[in-house]
Amino acid sequence: MRICRFTPHGWPDAEVRAGAAVGALDAPVIVDLAALLASEIVADGGEPGRAAELARATFPGSTVALLGSGGRAQREAERLLGALGDPEAARRETGPLGPHAHAREAVRLLAPVDRPPALRDFFAFEDHMVNALRNLGREVPPAWYEAPSHYVTRSASVFGPDEAGQWPAYTEKLDYELEFAIVIGRSGRDIPPERAWDHIAGLTIFNDLSCRDVQRREMGTAVGPAKTKGFDRGCATGPYLVTADEIPRPFAAGMRAFVNGELWSRGSAGSIHWSIEQIVAHASAGETLLPGDMLGSGTVGTGAGIEIDRWIKPGDVIRLEIDGLGALETRVERAGES
After folding, report:
1. Which listed residue, of 86, 147, 227, 305, carries a Cα 20 to 30 Å from 286's Cα?
2. 3-state DSSP assignment of residue 287
3. Secondary structure of residue 277 in the 3-state scheme
4. Residue 91, by phi and psi: left (phi above 0), alpha (psi -120 to 50) or beta?
């Protein structure tokens, strides 16, 4: 299942709905799960107002809250989608909470996970570490091979597919990063690698925008990254949270980055040095992972401009594609322009 959060065009921004994208990856129908459930309750004799209330409680506009149901909401969504029939026909059906489904172009997609309780980004691809550090005049430290490395950043920096990324005023060298993110669905601590997938809700595409000129300076200190990453609208995610049952294991999907339609980067999730299972195990050592927590994979080899000495400009559109997860497009705009 491809879980999303959305607001139909013309509706108040606060009217955020939980949805599921069905059909082709490039032209899906966005099913409104709460609207579908409310209509089913009414069809079974329920009062419309109460039906709407129950449906909203089952499928809140917050994915963090939805994941906190312990799997009940996902099972209910699977049941509803299994009985849906023709998704196009669902666009013509309506009930107490409005249309059952919308065309992709009729909605504004938001970040699939709203304000993750914690956002950790790993450096799990060796090729990226070698290439990027070489261009910063450094070598991969031996400690990188001893355990997965990561930093903790601001969850408030997460934004979605239909929003612009920020080009901060203090940088002239903004860069994209071609990554995926692991989303936790079930809480746990000290999780062994072989049990990692029991705690994973799914995966999404992740673009960790980074200020390379600032990074060069910050890496000379004993802390960081600080202003390099994690700024407002600095972590693009989406378009969907693809649930774990649809993720092949091992995950070896093709990964591509385009800038203004031109292919700049290509890699494979299968080239990861520290596996998804190892990342989850390391992150949970002594720390309780919570539903909605995001663990970035780090950048795939050649998956950033710093590795190929090519640099984006304000106004450019970065499109990240990962097979099975979809495509995430982000236009970067200078602060104050969006």
Report:
1. 227
2. coil
3. helix
4. alpha
Amino acid at 240: Y
Considering its fold, how many domains does the chain have in total? 2
Among the candidates 82, 110, 138, a domain finishes at 110
SS3 sequence of 151-183: EEECHHHEECCCCCEEECCCCCCEECEEEEEEE
In one letter, which amino acid is 243?
Answer: T
Residue ending a domain, among 77, 110, 143, is: 110
Report the predicted TM-score, pTM, of the whole model to 2 decimal places.
0.95
What pLDDT is stored for residue 338 in this prediction? 55
Q: What is the sign of the dihedral through the CA atoms of 9, 10, 14 and 15?
A: negative
Same domain, yes or no, for 81 and 199? no
| Residues 250-294: tens digit of each pLDDT | 999 999 999 999 999 999 999 999 999 999 999 999 999 999 999
Q: Could you tell me which residues come within 8 angstroms of residue 79 by beta carbon, excluding any fewer than 6 positions away?
A: none
Do 292 and 265 share a structural domain?
yes
Cα(174)–Cα(321) distance, rounded to whole angstroms?
Answer: 20
Letter for the amino acid at 333?
E
- Note down the domain range covering 288: 119-334
